[in-house]
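Quick log. Single chain, no ligands specified.
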Amino acid sequence: MPEVRMSSPQGKWILFTTVLGSSMALLDSTVVNVALPRIGEDLDADLAALQWTVNAYMLTLAGLILLGGSLGDRYGRRKVFVVGVVWFATASLLCGLAPSAGVLIAARALQGVGGALLTPGSLALIQASFHPDDRGRAVGLWSGFGGIGAAVGPFLGGWLVDGPGWRWVFLLNVPLAVVCVPVALRHVPESSAGGRAHGRFDVLGAVLGALALGLVTYALIEAGEGSWAVVLTAVAGVAAGVAFVQVERRRPDPMMPLGIFASRQFTAVNLVTLCVYAALGGFFFLSVVQFQVVAGYSALGAGTALLPATVLMLLFSARSGELANHIGPRIPLTVGPLVCATGMLLMLRVGKDASYPADVLPAVLVVGLGLVTLVAPLTATVLASVDVSRAGLASGINNAAARAAGLVSVAALPLLTGMGPDAYRSPDAFDDAFRRAMVWCAGALVVGAVIAFTTVRRPAPDCTRPECLTHGSVTAPPLEGRRARGRLR
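-> predicted structure:
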């Protein structure tokens, strides 16, 4: 049994290094969008290259995050966490030094691999190191500080872009890793699943899953060309997806056991997740560009503009979870997406010379209220819909589904809205496409609300309860690990 207490110096060092490591990945998932217009100008990149700058990271992160957790269980959670931090920092250095868009995209894909190693590893270290009496508090602090990192990220990114330049958005990770790695090696105890880790790693499943996402993403981004190569890529992506399902069905130790989807509640909530995070992925990708290209905001102003939504989540996500415990998840998971959809329709007011108090802030506040309403109940319902022994797996699948939804959305929305390769260089062209995109995002949220209303039911009295109650992540639901039984009424 782990014996590290929160009050001990070692406990504080463990919390410090895990928060610092996970914040690196969380910061990059929120700040890069702010830098996109400057990256495009500096590297003479078209819109497709900017899409890949975001999607290359999400592709490898979503495809490998489940495998990353399994590697930690087998080879040692501290070891894999440290490898992930070093890998992430090295890839960040390559991003910061990238001489071209192609090099930047490749380095971003490598960043996602590092993120897939360190993100689940940081939570696993906390759960494996702390005494059971302190574990819930430690996880709560970890998720809370991570939420603060998510709030600071766009502000910090905007300041860096306007000041020393966009490359420092990536280079900042290097000194953070220089601090994080020695502290982890000195103060964090090693742990693994020991005899519970058995079987082979599902490398084939991970490769097929990432390949399917990558090929479909490529086809969506390049679909405007209308070439046979795009059609063949799309067909190959679908074929890779079918092969992934077949491999997962037949393997004795699959990365994503398909039997978990036998729970209708789990399947339904993941469909809601796909709709919600597809909309959010498109919203956060396009909004910061709209603020800079059309409304004339600085990078700092664009990054700060969305801060109220994250602050609302930090302040009220725990209370939203408590409310869902009393009234059940169906109402929050129906109302939350509808509120978010209203906020995205309010974004139609954001045009040239938009006033922040009158045009931007009301929309951001409404989106934030919608997120407060739905994110915590969504996580709780995912955990409650499976056996306690599969809570960590269920959370990982839900987190990966959210990231995959954002990935596809960033690839598909420019196609659906008619954005050309140079749209972000033309305020009028981008503004027209942005307005159409907000309608698409609102529509996806309405579909999610309908699915929730018609399929989500009150969970069983004896079920798993989330520990990450305070959070501010807007790119994916918070990760949860193995849980003791609780009650979700």
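The longest strand covers residues 462-464.
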